[in-house]
Amino acid sequence: MTQPPQAGKAEEPETETPRSQTLLQEMGGISGLIYSSVPVLVFVLVNSIFSLQPAIWSAVGSALLITVIRIVRKQPLQPAISGFFGVAIAAFIAYRTGSAKGFFLFGIWASLVYGSVFTLSVLVRWPLVGVIWGLLNGHGQRWRADRKAMIAYDLATLAWAAVFAARFIVQRWLYDEDQTGWLAFARIAMGYPLTAVALLVTIWAVRRAGHRVRDLEQAAEDEERQIEARLRAKYGEPATES
To answer: How far is CA 182 from CA 72, 83, 104, 187, in A?
Structure first.
């Protein structure tokens, strides 16, 4: 039989560590990373055995099936929907270009756009990792008042920019060399490892910035109490209405 909570017992403050784990969940979790490679593998395999048209429909079909599975399992919906539309766009480009390597063109240029946006956010002093995390946890942008928190988020944002830049450079070169098979390999190989590295840097930045923000909040509270104490010592307790 469980005991009722004790009255007056202070709740333990929520730590930054559990919340930092939601970063991977927002991306669909480990299963989301695995599912994202399935349409690519299906496309390359079917294209090598049959032709471009069956490969396109097989990739779209596998992406649709994965979306349905994720919905049935009540897994995060946003990664499932975005993943399906990403494959659909890639398949449409492959159909329009009439080339299997066109399937990877959308991802290549998306990497360039994402890398540019992340880099620009650091240059304008609004590192995107900090902005996104502030929106996710509801803390707002208080971290911008602390230099060390800004540096932490700068490093995390630049880590993601480096990931996208590496993907664009390597995959663009393979695209120009008509290496469709190696494009698929690079798409998958540069997905898991590089994403893991960027996530580690991001989690470190979230924890460091979270500690800094809590220190700032505590210092502000201490200062307010000191000011209130000095005012009371000088003017006494405020008179109460009878």
So the answer is: 33, 21, 11, 8
Q: Total domain count for the chain?
A: 2
Q: Which residues lie below 8 Å from residue 139, measured CB to CB, with a gap of 6+?
A: 133, 213
Q: At residue 6, does pLDDT exceed 50? A: no
pLDDT, tens digit (0-9, with 9 covering 90-100), for 182-234: 999 999 888 878 888 898 999 898 888 877 776 665 655 656 666 666 666 66
Q: Kindly state whether residue 122 falls inside one of the protein's structural domains.
A: yes
Residue 115 lies in a domain: yes
Whether residue 46 contacts residue 94, with contact meaning beta carbons closer than 8 Å, is answered with no
State residue 227 phi and psi, 5-degree precision.
-65, -45
- Same domain as 112, residue 59: no
Domain boundary among 77, 98, 119: 98
